[in-house]
């Protein structure tokens, strides 16, 4: 920003080529406010135009170069100075020189790798953005445009149920069962709690979804737990032989896919916490981790060319199946967010 | 399926008095037979999981968690400065951990204090509070009967009843000798050896 009324200043505007057709999704910012951003997937090309508008008509703009970058970075809130960039691409738009009038520059980042999902959490943020810069002697003119990336998966081959007998010796024995161990974000948790022995006075039972965000490594690991949901599944005193059903629809809650050791910087994991509360407000609980994943939608034929190129990038995979999976991932679009 | 691993009572995990349920035996999920064959269904299957029908004698029989303790019939014993009040403690239960299903003892306030201290020292339980010590009431030159005032005794009786019912139902407290001795033995042996009930 220029504080001087003389001299030239400029405004930058970044516009995507497919702004009309590309889907936008809501994403919560650090301060809690929700905003809409363009949605991208791994392998998709990011292309558009950088519009440089000169503020004072007639005056020239001297600059040391104009460029646009595509950046994917992880920012830990307790260490703001250090941004860990895991994707960093740059395109030079103009060599050092001068602009005599407003100008538009085209750019294209072809088949950009976007390995992780965008995430804004309690102690860490992972974001992708375009940054256009006009370098100048005193101060640069910079414009950033955030985008949101979603990572998609398909139905896992192996998805066993979780079934366990837990309790306190001679006091409370229950058997709990959840129909799967891996759930997609719009899935339903179907399960049951079977009472084998009830020698305490249970008042009610609930199931909580806990999100645990882990940042840091080694001795500096920090866990931040957040209860995303509390869902009462039983009210009243159960006796032996009773079976309480569970049916919990995940679509109603703000969830992200499970993220494990992202770039060795952070993890986001989810747990189901079964809690029984007795008449004296004592809580008996059993926590169990579940894996959450994001499901793609029906494949679109028009994307097949781009998907074919994207699948070629997965050179390491030996089987045809994984190539087809990659294709499905690149093509798939989500059904309503 | 491996042999049953029976664990000790779960330990209280934090100040809120949460108890972690520990695992008994590993039930294997039927991995081979019921591998979910998902052919991309558009609507999730929300049908209930199969469960055994409940035995009617279990459904309509007496519950296994019956435990009631009454604190009543306060009696002031002695004369002058050595007076003290005792309360009758009647316990009725069907929990197998208690030797007697029906018991009756007399206890005084300092016995309750003893129990609270024993539990706080030996177990990880957050012990509920006792009704107050009422030291002010023990000072001289009061206009009333002090700690032998009827209304005060009633207030204390209610507090003691709440206290003992709360703590007797705690699975970790039920595993301490001091609780059993307090509830079911005629006199408290202050030289006892703390530990698990026999």
From TrEMBL, chain A:
Query: Whose protein is this, by species?
Result: Huso huso
Q: What is this protein called?
A: Vacuolar protein sorting-associated protein 26B-like
Bias (Polar residues) occurs at 314-324
Where is the region Disordered?
A: 314-337
* Gene3D superfamilies (UniProt xref): 2.60.40.640
The record ties this protein, via InterPro entries, to: Arrestin-like_C, Vps26-related
Q: Highest lineage ranks of the organism?
A: Eukaryota, Metazoa, Chordata, Craniata, Vertebrata
Family, per entry: Belongs to the VPS26 family.
Could you say which residues form the signal peptide?
none
Coiled-coil features, chain-numbered ranges = none
UniProtKB/TrEMBL annotation, chain B:
Instruction: Tell me which UniProt keywords the record has, alphabetically.
Output: Lipid-binding, Protein transport, Transport
Q: What organism, scientifically named, is this protein from?
A: Huso huso (Beluga)
> What InterPro entries does this protein map onto?
PX_dom (IPR001683), PX_dom_sf (IPR036871), Sorting_Nexin (IPR051074)
The similarity annotation says: Belongs to the sorting nexin family.
Which Pfam families does the UniProt entry name for this protein? PX
Q: What is this protein called?
A: Sorting nexin-12 isoform X2
Chain residue ranges for the region called Disordered: 26-61
Domain of life of the source:
Eukaryota
Q: Which residues form the PX domain?
A: 65-189
Q: Where is the composition biased (Low complexity)?
A: 26-36
């Amino acid at each position: 920003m220029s504080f001087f009324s003389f001299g030239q200043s400029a405004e930058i505007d970044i516009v995507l080529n497919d702004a009309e057709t590309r889907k936008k999704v809501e994403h919560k910012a650090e301060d809690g406010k929700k905003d809409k951003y363009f949605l991208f997937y791994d392998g998709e090309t990011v292309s558009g135009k950088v519009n440089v508008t000169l503020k004072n008509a007639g005056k020239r703009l001297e600059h040391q170069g104009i460029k646009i970058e595509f950046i994917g970075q992880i920012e830990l809130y307790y260490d703001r100075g250090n941004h860990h960039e895991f994707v960093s691409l740059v395109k030079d738009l103009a060599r050092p020189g001068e602009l005599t009038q407003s100008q538009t520059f085209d750019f294209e980042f072809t088949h950009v790798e976007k390995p992780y999902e965008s995430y804004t959490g309690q102690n860490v943020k992972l974001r992708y953005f375009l940054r256009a810069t006009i370098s100048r002697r005193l101060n640069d003119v910079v414009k950033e445009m955030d985008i949101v990336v979603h990572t998609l998966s398909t139905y896992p081959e192996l998805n066993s149920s979780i079934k366990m007998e837990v309790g306190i010796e001679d006091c409370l024995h229950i058997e709990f069962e959840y129909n799967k161990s891996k759930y997609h974000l719009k899935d339903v948790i179907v399960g049951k709690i079977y009472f084998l022995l009830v020698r305490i006075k249970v008042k009610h039972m609930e199931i909580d979804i806990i999100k645990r965000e882990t940042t840091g490594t080694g001795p500096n690991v920090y866990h931040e737990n957040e209860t995303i949901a509390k869902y009462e599944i039983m009210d009243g005193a159960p006796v032996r032989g009773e079976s309480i059903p569970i049916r919990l629809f995940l679509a109603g809650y703000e969830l992200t896919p499970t993220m494990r050791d992202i770039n060795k910087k952070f993890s986001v994991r989810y747990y189901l916490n079964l809690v029984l509360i007795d008449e004296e407000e004592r809580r008996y609980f059993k926590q169990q981790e579940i894996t959450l994943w994001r499901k793609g939608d029906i494949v679109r034929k028009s994307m097949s060319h781009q998907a074919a190129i994207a699948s070629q990038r997965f050179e390491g995979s030996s089987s045809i199946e994984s190539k087809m999976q990659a294709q499905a991932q690149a093509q798939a679009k989500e059904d309503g967010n | 399926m491996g042999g049953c691993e029976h664990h000790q009572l779960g330990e209280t995990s934090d100040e809120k008095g949460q108890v972690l349920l520990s695992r008994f035996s590993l039930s294997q999920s039927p991995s081979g037979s019921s591998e979910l064959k998902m052919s991309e269904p558009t609507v999730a299957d929300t049908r209930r999981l199969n469960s055994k029908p409940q035995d009617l004698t279990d459904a309509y029989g007496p519950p296994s968690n019956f435990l009631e303790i009454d604190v009543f019939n306060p009696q002031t014993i002695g004369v002058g400065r050595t007076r003290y009040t005792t309360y009758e403690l009647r316990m009725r239960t069907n929990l197998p951990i208690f030797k007697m299903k029906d018991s009756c003892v007399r206890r005084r306030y300092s016995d309750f204090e003893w129990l609270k201290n024993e539990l706080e020292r030996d177990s990880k339980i957050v012990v509920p509070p006792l009704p107050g010590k009422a030291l002010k009431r023990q000072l001289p030159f009061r206009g009333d009967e002090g700690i032998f005032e009827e209304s005060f005794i009633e207030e204390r009786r209610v507090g003691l009843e709440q206290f003992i019912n709360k703590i007797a139902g705690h699975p970790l407290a039920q595993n301490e000798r001091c609780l059993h001795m307090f509830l079911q033995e005629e006199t408290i042996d202050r030289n006892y050896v703390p530990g698990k009930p026999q």
